[in-house]
Amino acid sequence: MSSAELLKDQPSASRNRLVLSVYTAATFLSALLLFSVQPLFTKMVLPRLGGSPAVWSVAMVFFQTLLLAGYAYAHFLMRIKNRVIPVAIHILLLVVAMATLPLSIATGWGDPPTSGYAVWLLGLFALSIGLPFFALAANNPLLQAWFVRTGHPAGPDPYFLYASSNIGSFLALLSYPVLLEPMFTLHTQDLMWSAGYGLLIVLIASCGMLLLRSPALAAADLQTEETAAPPPSWTLRARWIFLAAVPSGLLIAVTAHISTDVAAAPLLWVLPLSLYLLTWVLVFQSRPLLPHRWVLMVQPLAIAGVVILLAVGGEQNLLLTLGGHQLGFFLIAMACHGELARTRPAAKYLTGFYVALSFGGMLGGLFAGLIAPFTFSWIAEYPILLALAALCRPAGGERLPRWSRWYWPFLAVLAVALIAPALHAGGEIRVWLEDHRVWVAGSVALLAAALALVFNANRWKVFATVVVALVMIRAYPSDDGRVETVRSFFGVHKIVVTPNGQYHVLMHGTTIHGAEKFLNDDGSPVTGRPEPISYYHKDGGIGQAITAIRERKAAPLRVAVIGVGSGTLACAAEPGESWKFFEIDQTMVDAARDPRYFNYINSCQPDLKPVIGDARLTFAREPDGIYDLIIVDAYSSDAIPIHLATEQAMKIYKDKLAPQGAVVMHVSNRHLDLESVVVSIADANDLKSWVYNEDSGRDDEYIFATDVVVSARDDADVGQLASSDKWAETEPTEGERVWTDDYSNILGAVYRRLRDGE
Fold it and tell me: Which residue range is the domain that position 364 belongs to?
């Protein structure tokens, strides 16, 4: 072939610009849609399972599994030599998937079962959005493989498109809680997403046309140039899988850790996921903003910092919880993903590389989202993955090798000295270690960092040292007294017996959800009917509301209670009254019935049989107009099931009320202002509201101040509360949008709490 003919077949500069623009736009939009659908659809599903943070964990497992399926599909599709067939097959898949839009929960998908929630959720996701998500998942590797074959000058190293993809993902997630969720209803978001999907099909078709019109010579030349590139070894492939699995699992573990104490809401899901995607953007840039060697230097300090945070327990401080753990996660993920970028193969093996990455991501998600919750009675996956992060460091020659061989026996002696005292109750050494657990565990974690930074120690030594620090934290828990844990799909509950055995306390996350006094101040056992304490004492907001409604009716009450907790409210009932409880978590009911933990139900209502299931579904089946009082107290830790605090939820409560009935909502929360939310949803249903947010005046150790909102049709319905100076009749906040099943704004609730300084 002559030189003139060669030049004629080469793509022009203007065509190169067109190819780059179209492929970049398609990659960006595809990623934008792929990751915006995750919080969008998961928020649709939340009401089916009580707003549990575990819904997001299972959703992440589904998304990671479909991502693997999409990458594998792209890998095998690109093994077809003919360029027309892959383009035609993929565009056909996108068009068929478009026919399933707009997004919605699959028709006929019934109520959740009483067990096997994770499998049920995976089936719901698969039937509802499986096809469009699968098609989207394949776009990233397919478009990069097509781009290589267009003959563009940047084709030999197309990984910059992966950065473009993750920029789209990052912006989609970051904009969701800040722009989309506060501004648009779920229905509007769904329509916008569907329109974007249609535009994407046009862009993908354009990419296919540009590929098919590319000179065949360019693709052939590229194949010849890459023939010499050796295939990656199976050891390297296994390393890729491990490097992808650790940050993927950490993503779910960190998300669960921080969302447990605020709310199961997209705001807190997307923060860690956005950082996770940002790491991919940064490491796959042609000139990374953060050099990989710098990140490797900081990574051991990040691991040590998270160990110290776990030892301290920063949940009382929202900024510390959100900031500290996520900064540590970001730096750890940067190190892992930086190693992946450093060892990435030639473009010839691109799709196989992405299959390995997605397979590792799925394994990490399976471990943190499905295996760990059924294996451990506590949140063990977070420290396990944190320790494994030390093994993500690259191998290197140790400094001072003559001395480093003595480290293993030194570490063994240190481990025995620190952990053995925990096996024996009492003892001065154990007491000292319990009192100084943060300092000692932090020092061991910093020792691991020093090993990595100063001595460039073998990564197994760093790993083992981190393990010692984490085991010590577990051996000497921060809770005073004996602790037992109960774990279910809906979280981990702790039953804490105070050191003197006087109180048994129920905790979820860092929030107390009930307590019972077992011993009097003189050490004698408490006998007779247990007194409701914690938030439920007769002098507190809930207790006052029950008394007022009872006096107003002057007859036995018929009461519905959403949320069992420790069973405290079972002892608020009086003889002749009918109290019916609704609870989503059977393990919570079992714990409340266990005499080793609490006696409220056994002493006051031994025949109590709570209705199991999400209250929005089970309570809606109750007859209308029968309850004098409905008490909504269904919070897990400080998280809130948002679907129980919407205009539609309040309508259900109102429908079930007797003519002079009232709704009591317990809204105590450290991080969110929920009083205004409840007042507005009550007003939307033509109900008046009175707010109580004072202390009960008791000095007892486990008597707490409460924030309570009582809503009713008229002043007379709430009796003496309407004239009490402790209860303020409250109007909706002007300009504040009412929460509905289609709209909620967690960011606004957080802002109001921070603004008011509460």
Answer: 10-392
